[in-house]
Amino acid sequence: MKYYKSYMDRQEISPAVHEKLLNLESRPSRPWLRYGVLAACAALVIGAGVWRLAPAPAPVTDPPRSAGQFAADYDPLPGEKDVVEPGDGFVVSSPAGGGKLEFPMIPDINYQDITDQSQLSSDASRAYLPGSFMTNLKKEDVQTIFWGPEGKPQADHPKTEQGDLPWMLFWDGYTLQGRALYDGQGQLMELWLWGEQDRASFELELCPGALPFTCCIDVNRGDIISEFNGVSVAGWSQVYDRDGDGQDDYICGSEFMTKNDIGVRFVNRNSLMRVEYEQDGSMDLGGAQAFNALFVRQALTDGGLYLDHLAENENIPAWREESFSTLAQARQEADFAPYLPASEPEGYSAYSGNKEFYGRLSYQEGRQNMLFVRWSRGYDNVEVCVYRDGYYSCNLVSPDQPEAYDLRLYEIPWCDSVPEQYRETVDRPAFRAEDMSLAIVEARGREHDTGGMTWSFDVLHPDGTVVSYRCDGLTARQVWEMVEETL
């Protein structure tokens, strides 16, 4: 399962687009879908149809580790950590008697095919909020989203029997993982749930008071708007080989605001179901559409969705953000000053054109502690980023393995010339400070598209500090002198 990075930008949609979605005229809603329901009910009766509750796979007792920071065959020093442990997750289990439950009515959502159409919304925007932080969701957190604080219904009747989550979601057997994003004051900004089972997967985004940020659907188009239980629902579908495995992927998505003011975006890919959602339609696409529509039904009926238990997080990690307009200001930060250049890079201080300096410190307890400086002259940049306290993963290599870092050994495009086992290190190698030399810097040079050379590498210091260098328009010796004064 592919998880989101620990720090995500603030995601939101503009108020104008939000208002348009809620105020668009909806097309006349049709009655509950007939064909899918009849086929599905028959399948549950005879036990051999297109709607199938697949058994849950065995829980993963030893989850895969995340990607390591070290190069292959590297011998870590004592205390050097190679991996970060994965977050919480669980496999959804439905009631043992799920096959006897009455099948739900399926809402009729118009999943307009947008496979060949432009899908970008020009009204979408992102803004970064300093101090925002992520937390993993526990199983109980996810259950409360769907059942509220009162918990699951009593199982005294076959129709209300439940498993880990409402069985009408048909998430049985999916491995779920969730994360919540909070601002620097501990207020919930957005929430994500990911589910995966074989080729089938889904992503749910929830946002208090606004639609989640989206970059793949234009909600201004009226032909994708349906109405269910008095709520406007934007629905769309796509059919194409998304992952390049030679098989078509059947993708369905929906966006809407719940009556208790929660913005929702739900996208699922493929489905374990097969059903004719539209008359004479593809049963593979129909299964994906029905799976999505069942979620819409769950979210907009009964208790709907509940986020009050996650609205505030009192465990706010300490954080600090600072900007600097000069190198002298940045060097006032005592913990970082030994790793910063003592003066402006040669050739940049004498530049008479459009020259800029930018500096920023970003600290968050338990997550990051870094200071970044950049000099710009036209299209050339010199960037130095100092990472403290072990929050930066690097690809350590030995100077005795030039094939792992020497750009002179490979031709562009690197995807054709660099062996797979060296692609990460050739792209971004790290060297211990005691191993650094002018020769290593020379091995990291390549032609820059504005003329001259560009250089890139990381340096790991004995105290665990990592300094990342990205330098344009300098000579190898100029870059080496910048590094050497910090060693």
Task: Write structural notes for this entry.
- With 487 residues, this protein is an alpha+beta fold.
- The chain has helices spanning 15-23, 35-46, 139-147, 283-300, 327-330, 414-417, 423-427, 438-443, 476-484, and strands spanning 10-13, 90-91, 112-113, 124-127, 133-136, 175-182, 188-197, 200-208, 225-228, 231-240, 249-257, 262-269, 319-324, 355-364, 368-377, 380-387, 395-396, 429-432, 445-447, 453-460, 466-472.
- Strands 2, 3, 5, 6, 7, 8, 9, 10, 11 and 12 form a ten-stranded mixed beta sheet that branches.
- Strand 11 and strand 12 form a beta hairpin.
- The longest helix has 18 residues, at 283-300.
- The two termini are 40 Å apart.
- Mean pLDDT is 78; it is low at 1-86 and 119-125.
List the helices and strands and how they pair.
Blueprint: E1 10-13, H1 15-23, H2 35-46, E2 90-91, E3 112-113, E4 124-127, E5 133-136, H3 139-147, E6 175-182, E7 188-197, E8 200-208, E9 225-228, E10 231-240, E11 249-257, E12 262-269, H4 283-300, E13 319-324, H5 327-330, E14 355-364, E15 368-377, E16 380-387, E17 395-396, H6 414-417, H7 423-427, E18 429-432, H8 438-443, E19 445-447, E20 453-460, E21 466-472, H9 476-484
Parallel strand pairs: 3-10, 17-18, 18-20
Antiparallel strand pairs: 1-4, 2-6, 5-6, 6-7, 7-8, 8-12, 9-10, 10-11, 11-12, 13-14, 14-15, 15-16, 16-21, 19-20, 20-21
